[in-house]
Amino acid sequence: TAIMMVDPEGALVSIDPTMPTNSPKVIYFCLFAPTEKEDMFQNVLSQVAEQFSRAFRINELKTEVTNRLAMLEKRVELEGLKVVEIEKCKNDLKKLRDEMTSRVGNCPCKYNFSDDGKKLNPRRDVPSYPKYTLSQETIEALKKPTFDVWHWEHNEMLSCLEYMYHDLGLVKEFNMNPITLKRWLVKVELYKSNYLNRLETSTRSVCVPQEKMTLTDMGILMTAAVCHDLDHPGYNNTYQINARTELAVRYNDISPLENHHCAVAFQILSLPECNIFANVELEAYKQIRQAIITLILATDMARHGEILDSFKHKVDSFDFTNEEHVTCLKMVLIKCCDISNEVRPTEVAEPWVDCLLEEYFMQSDREKTEGLPVAPFMDRDKVTKPTAQIGFIKFVLIPMFETVLKLFPQIEEIMVQPLRDSRDHYEELKQIDDAMTEKKKTENMSLGGKKK
């Protein structure tokens, strides 16, 4: 570095022995002037610093670009999942249209379920059955055994059941979305072969204990009663096991039908648009699910004696705060829902008896064709309506309902006495049938004697 000296006026001063002495009047200033090499070095340092700064900016830019790319990839992934979900919904809608079309056929109703490229009607995201305003007379009739399901259309019954869920306080208790309840009812109805009958019986048995049971228990019982026969194939467990059907193989011969009903029920509830328990906390839902499964499995008649004996041991000291006692009661009540047809008046109950006997006869005919064992009470060549009903009422229904009567005395008039009347009715029919049979035998013997 070069050193220069200047006076106060800025003029250069030659540095030599003859220069004036520095004094307050004559002040010299030293200036340091960089050399050419130092200038070059400073330039190099400046360029290096600039390069480093640029490199850091490039790294920052790369980081920012990488982050933005990651965000874009995430968005693309989410959009892709949405597309997949939309396609799944479209496929579900197509299946539903096809199923409705196959069930409705050429019905000239105002709703169009065909997949012709048009939107499904009605266009609102609400099930298609019309909303009925139930009269007070209908509401009261729903609570009585005399309620005649033969006078009601499917859509009307759906509205009745929807009303029951609201009236019993179940929609509020489980925080159900009312539209989801509608969707669930429509979906369940597609799987019900004897839907109308089950709705009415489930209502009566649920209404009886509502003052002594919690709303959660009421909701479990009601839902299990509605779902306990979903997708019934028309052939009982004995046939399933003997014929080694797919259901028997799947469930290892253990209550094949009841396990299947449970599976179908929770397949429906697994659909977000049909999950009436969607707003229930996870742990509570697990308990509800287990309780519903327990009740549906209890409808296997092979367990009838076991369940009724357990209830008989508890009924005299029954405790509504005891969970085991209440579970046993619910199991008995859903059995009442399942087999209480004879509680109704004869004109309402008898058509269902005819339907049931025809189902039995179809099964026994098939068993004979396939070389399988045939139950005597299902053989059209051995059973009559009176003989079938008398034994069932005397040895199954009356003992069960009389045991329930100990807890709920109010069912004496509306349920137990009608069962006794029904038993008497079929015993009278049996006497008439026996008299007719004896008369025919006498006539045949007389004709035989004349021929000789």
TrEMBL record:
Name the UniProt record assigns to this protein: Phosphodiesterase
Catalyzed reactions per annotation: 3',5'-cyclic GMP + H2O = GMP + H(+)
Keywords: cGMP, Hydrolase, Metal-binding
Lineage: Eukaryota, Metazoa, Chordata, Craniata, Vertebrata
Pfam families in alphabetical order: PDEase_I (PF00233)
Cofactor annotation comment: Binds 2 divalent metal cations per subunit. Site 1 may preferentially bind zinc ions, while site 2 has a preference for magnesium and/or manganese ions.
Cofactor: a divalent metal cation
Enzyme class: hydrolase
Binding site for Zn(2+) 2: D229
Protein family: Belongs to the cyclic nucleotide phosphodiesterase family. PDE9 subfamily.
GO MF: 3',5'-cyclic-GMP phosphodiesterase activity; metal ion binding
EC number from the UniProt entry: 3.1.4.-
Annotated function: Specifically hydrolyzes the second messenger cGMP, which is a key regulator of many important physiological processes. Highly specific: compared to other members of the cyclic nucleotide phosphodiesterase family, has the highest affinity and selectivity for cGMP. Specifically regulates natriuretic-peptide-dependent cGMP signaling in heart, acting as a regulator of cardiac hypertrophy in myocytes and muscle. Does not regulate nitric oxide-dependent cGMP in heart.
PROSITE patterns, alphabetized: PDEASE_I_1 (PS00126), PDEASE_I_2 (PS51845)
Source species: Oncorhynchus mykiss (Rainbow trout)
Pathways per UniProt: Purine metabolism; 3',5'-cyclic GMP degradation; GMP from 3',5'-cyclic GMP: step 1/1
Biological-process GO terms, alphabetical: signal transduction
InterPro entries named among the record's database cross-references: HD/PDEase_dom (IPR003607), PDEase (IPR023088), PDEase_catalytic_dom (IPR002073), PDEase_catalytic_dom_sf (IPR036971), PDEase_CS (IPR023174)
Limits of the PDEase domain: 122-433
Binding site for Zn(2+) 1: H228, D229, D338
Highest taxon of source: Eukaryota
